[in-house]
Amino acid sequence: MNKRTFLAAACSAIATAALPAANAYAQADYPDKPIRVIMPWAAGGPTDVVGRVIAVQMGEILGQPLVIETRAGASGTIGTAQVAKAPADGYTLLMNPSVQGIYPAQFKNLSFDPIKDFRMVGVLGTVPMVAVVPPDSKFKTFGDLIKQGQAQPGSLTFASPGVATLPHLAGELINTSTKAKITHVGYRGSSPALTDVAGGHVDLMYAPLAPALPLIQSGKIRPIAVTTKARLAELPDVPTIAESVLPGFDIVTWYGMWAPKDTPQPIIAKLNKVMIEASKSPKVVEALKSQGTMPSAMSYQEAEAFNLAESERWIKVMQDAGIQPE
């Protein structure tokens, strides 16, 4: 080996040996610049509102801001694809609702794997849903409504914010679980769907609590059941679906934060710890409450397992309901 070759090999070996130390230092010093958070939905929606509240508080704790960038389009897949291809250094994150795990059953062709190309940072919050009917509906209980759906298939309709949203899938799960046949009517968002429930144009909606609660309080719609395993503090007199029809029934909508798949574990752990700390802040708790959202204290490992379980559950519901990917 000549002198030049020897020196090159030696330098290469030193550089390679230094990489773990450099990476460890970078992780220990993380973050030392602002963090981009891609929000793949229109600004002002529930994902944006909930995520922004927590992101601001996380930035205060970390000493670096979490800057939310809107990349809306194609049911959230445009922004999600951008994060999947981003450097796995903790400086590009994704904020998405639970639809993340349902993408494989929604779309035939994706440029990313919504499970394998990401690691969960954590669950930002969970949102109960409430089964609501028009104020003058003849149904006084959820059980009575389901009985008609069983006895007279297709005679009733339920609204949702759109195909493959969790309020839609909740309705399909209840249909298959009770053998009722209540026809789905999709809208572009919760607001027009709730407007048509209030007007008596559809019979039922499994609505997220935040947009439904003001209409319930004003008497424009009437609640007959909630989707969580326990009754809600906001609606203590409204029984659960588990009490009424399906023992053990418990579903929520939720929002999460993801990072590219190769993001180092210490960075994921740090972000998760800070997210939980931020969620306990009184001003964050109050802001989430106004959105009908419960803060989450899941570890990143628990969040990962929760995401997988939710993905499997709702993909099966879509398959059982005959919902075909586009």
Automatic annotation (TrEMBL):
PANTHER family (UniProt xref): BLR1237 PROTEIN, TRICARBOXYLATE-BINDING PROTEIN
Protein's name according to its UniProt entry: Tripartite tricarboxylate transporter family receptor
Keywords in alphabetical order: Signal
SUPFAM superfamilies: Periplasmic binding protein-like II (SSF53850)
Record Pfam families: TctC
Hydrolase is among the record's keywords: no
InterPro entries, per the entry: BUG (IPR005064), Bug_dom1 (IPR042100)
Provenance organism: Achromobacter insolitus
Family named by the database record: Belongs to the UPF0065 (bug) family.
Signal peptide positions (record): 1-26
